[in-house]
Amino acid sequence: MTSFSISSVSSKLIDELQQKIDTKTKPPGSLGRLETLALHLGRIQNTLSPELRNLSILVFAGDHGITEEGVSPYPQEVTAQMVLNFLSGGAAINVFCRQHSISLHVVDAGVKGDLQQHPDLIAAKIGRGTKNFAKTPAMSKTECEQALTKGAELSRTLPDTDCNIIGFGEMGIGNTSSASALMQRLTGLPLEDCVGKGTGLDDSGLARKREILQKALDLHAGNEQPQEVLATFGGFEIAMMVGAMLESAVLGRILLIDGFIATSAFLAASRIAPEIREYAVFTHQSDELGHGAMLKYLQAEPLLSLGMRLGEGTGAAVAFPLLKSAVAFLNEMASFESAGVSDRADGE
Fold this sequence. Notes:
The longest helix has 19 residues, at 314-332. The protein has one domain: 3-Layer(aba) Sandwich (Rossmann fold). It is globular, with a radius of gyration of 21 Å. By secondary structure, it is α/β, with parallel strands linked by helices. The mean pLDDT is 95. It has helices at 11-22, 33-45, 77-88, 92-99, 141-157, 175-187, 203-219, 226-233, 236-250, 260-272, 291-297, 314-332, 336-339, and strands spanning 56-62, 103-110, 121-123, 165-171, 254-257, 280-282. Strand 5 (254-257), helix 10 and strand 6 form a beta-alpha-beta unit. Strands 3-2-1-4-5-6 form a six-stranded parallel beta sheet, with helices on both faces.
C-alpha cells in the first residue's frame, strides 16, 4: 500500500472560498447545501475554482462464504449473473452512467463462478469468494493485503489519467452481512442497529441473520485492528474498495461514497487513515438499516435521501449532477461587484 499523506489546506484559502461563495448575487446561504458542497470541493482540490474531470465509477464484485448460513434470500449465483448484466449494459448503474456520461469499470474481485473474458471486465480475482466467517476468518491476512494492494493499483490505472473524481460501487450476495459485522466491530454500536434486511429478508430471516452475526462476532472477539477486522469479516470486493479509496485520496481525488456497503468500506479505510475523511462526499443515505447510524458515527451528512438501497454505485451516479451544480455556481455565477448589483447595506 502507498503511504498515505494529505495536502494541507490553508485557512486563508478556506476564508477566500467562503468569501467567493458569500459575494455571489444571492442572499448568504440561499443555495443551502450547494454552498457547503462547493466549499468542500474547493478544499479537496485546494483551489478557488474546482473542476470535475472524467468521473469514473468502479464496481467491485465478490462472493461471501457467509451465504452458507442462509443470510440472503438470493442464491450466490446471482453475483456472477449481475456482473454479466453490468457487462451487457442492463443494470441500473449502467443506465445512470450513460445518462451522466460517467465511465464505468467492473472488477471481478472474488466472484465464486468463472467469468469469461470480456473487454469491459477487469479480472482481479483474489479467490473464489471468501470463507464463511461464522466459522473462520473470511480471508487470510495475506489475501486481505493482496486485495488492498490490487484496489490501490486499479485506482491508479483504471480511470482516465485526468480523472480527479471517483465513485465506488459493489455487487456481492451476502455483503450486507459482511458490512454489518464490519460496522459493529469498528463502531461498537449495538448489533441490532447495524443489521437490516439486505436484499429482502422477512422478519424471521432478519432475526436469524442477527443471531448468526452475533455468534460470528463472539467467535472472533478480540479482533480490533482495522485490517484484522477487514480480513475477518470483509469481502474481497470490500477490501479491494478500501484499497482503491485510500489510493484515490493519495492521488487527491474527490471520493463519491455510495450506500451501506461502500460506506462500510470507507469506515474501514478511515480507521486505517483518518485523513481520508477530508476527501469524501457521501452521496445518499441508503434505506438499509444501519446506514443512517454509520453516517452519524462518521459525522457525515449525505446529499440525498431517496429510499434507495440497491448498491452498484447508483447513489454516486444519481448525486453527481449536484456536484456539477455546486462547481458551476461557484465558477460561473456573477458576484455583486461584477454584476453591478448592490449588496446588502451594512447592519442589515
